[in-house]
Write a structure and sequence with these properties.
Layout lengths: L13 E9 L9 E9 L5 E8 L9 H4 L12 H12 L2 E5 L2 H14 L9 E3 H8 L8 H7 L10 H16 L10 H8 L18 E7 L15 E8 L4
Parallel strand pairs: 1-4, 4-5
Antiparallel strand pairs: 1-2, 2-3, 6-7
Length: 244
């Protein structure tokens, strides 16, 4: 799931495009049930991606929105079990999302629950970028922005589908004539200098055993009104090894 040269290691620079699905709207009262990270270098070239469902240790919440059923998270890792890898993936990078303050709030709260303060990483919001550089958009939600940028269909409300199209939207906005060249040189440099904590393997898994990852795949959407959404396919996406 993470091809290419050691993304997230010390000295890495670039962008981490994130998306989370959650059991509700409140980072304080609800939990993450899926997370995805798409890694881009300083020139917006892909470096790798990560995605998995998570066991929220309770009800999965609004299935009618994220289409995650309770049975889908059986055997999924807990947040603590993937937290060491997430820290490595985000280290040295600008955190990007569509309405990124929401994704950041859930990440911040999940790390706080396990006693790890998330460093003050620079944030970049594609919703704000779209407002400035995508005037043709009929709205500022991700689907409307993707349509205005002619990015095609994508599996909406799956963390990996949203993160992938957000990465494409980032490229589109930063390449727009109205966007100043090298506008994010400063935040990239700032992100590369932020010290990040490291975290050991979760004790919930015996030493030497991997953490199984569950990844959702789906045909590209969103889907036209009145059409039945394609089925989301749950796949075993390998396992985290010694990193976890």
């Amino acid at each position: 799931m993470l091809p290419g040269p050691a993304p997230g290691t010390p000295g890495a620079r670039g962008f981490a495009v994130v998306d989370v699905e959650a059991t509700g709207r409140s980072p304080w009262r609800h939990r993450m049930v899926e997370v995805a990270v798409v890694l881009l270098d300083e020139r917006l070239r892909p470096e790798g991606e990560f995605a998995t469902l998570l066991d929220p240790l309770g009800p999965v919440g609004p299935t009618h929105v994220h289409r995650i059923r309770q049975c889908d998270v059986e055997g999924a890792p807990r947040f603590r079990e993937i937290a060491p890898l997430l820290l490595e993936l985000l280290a040295g990078r600008v955190l990007v999302g569509h309405h990124v303050s929401c994704d950041h709030a859930f990440l911040d709260r999940e790390f706080a629950r396990i006693g790890v303060p998330l460093p003050p990483v620079p944030l970049l919001c594609t919703m704000r970028l779209a407002r400035a550089h995508l005037p043709a958009a009929r709205g500022h939600g991700l689907a409307a922005c993707a349509e205005a940028a002619d990015l095609g269909w994508y599996p909406a409300h799956t963390a990996l589908g949203d993160a992938r199209v957000t990465a494409e939207l980032l490229r589109h906005c930063l390449d727009a004539p109205s966007c100043p060249p090298d506008d994010w040189t400063g935040p990239l440099r700032e992100a590369a200098g932020v010290p990040w904590p490291r975290l050991g393997r979760a004790r919930s898994r015996p030493a030497g055993t991997g953490v199984p990852l569950l990844r959702r795949e789906a045909p590209y959407g969103p889907w036209l009104p009145g059409c039945q959404a394609p089925e989301v396919v749950l796949t075993q996406a390998g396992a985290m090894g010694s990193t976890a």
